[in-house]
Amino acid sequence: MKDTVSANIGKFEDPKWTAKGEERATVSLTNPQTLWFNTGTLCNITCVNCYIESSPTNDALVYITADEVRDYVDQLEDRAWGVREIAFTGGEPFMNPQMIDMARASLERGYEVLILTNAMRPMMRKTVQAGLVELNADFPGKLTLRISVDHFRADLHDEERGAGAFDKTLAGMKWLRDNGLKMAVAGRTVWGDTDAESRQGYAGFYAQHGFAIDAFDPAETVLFPEMDERIEVPEITTACWGILGKSPDSVMCSSSRMVVKRKGEEKLAVLACTLLPYAPEFELGQTLAEAERDVALNHPHCAKFCVLGGASCSA
Ligand code: SF4
Ligand code: SF4
Question: Is the pLDDT reported for residue 230 higher than 80?
Fold first, then answer.
């Protein structure tokens, strides 16, 4: 799998110290908000630049089950994490035959549920549609589907996802709209639009189709930057927080963990975040208790996406 490449040679190696011998920044789990489950890496399509390299054949992370979700929900309660939300990502979560059961297991325990999906054929199967309608009736307002719409223009979306993908996703979104299911959107910023241009474009797209999604709320229209590991990034030291005026509490691993099941492994594993599914040093243990430990920001993604966000704290 992908890992640090030549631009960052010598960096991001020792969890405690940077290449320059400075103390590496760490993040504590200060405010757990979301427990993520990766439902499995299989996907019905193969997008360009899928950060988790999903495809119809990648089963590096295998399907988790509703019983496994229940076990972690029990742990959540034992550990009193107080999370608000349980979220599911893939791959395409609706490829997993137990997706509806997993969502129900979480909703029954009082959590809000977020499912990331491309809203294509796996979600549009009759049994899944019936399951979604039932969940929405049983737990009104508690279930959100976040749809991947890479760009509001069909031609640009299809560049990433293949010809015809936009129309299929649009059909899925219309079905969700007509059945009163709550939607959010995940877009990408690969094409050089400014944030304002992107949000304006999504607003027009939603208005055209009557989608009740707020283009200007970053939680409802989430815009992701590209993850290019060939770019050189500085390492994050304990001094960076002060230099950037940023708190470790603003970074995802202060508020989330992700549960995965690796192919061939008997036990599930808990990772620091959703962004580094294959990096072994971000696997914190098998239980939520083990996953409460601090995370060393020892990967270019930590620097580029989470801490710097385009800024620089190197001297
Ligand atoms: S739909 Fe999502 S998970 Fe599937 S290949 Fe595309 S980006 Fe990856
Ligand atoms: S990429 Fe690094 S800093 Fe960002 S959430 Fe994951 S572990 Fe934390």
Answer: no
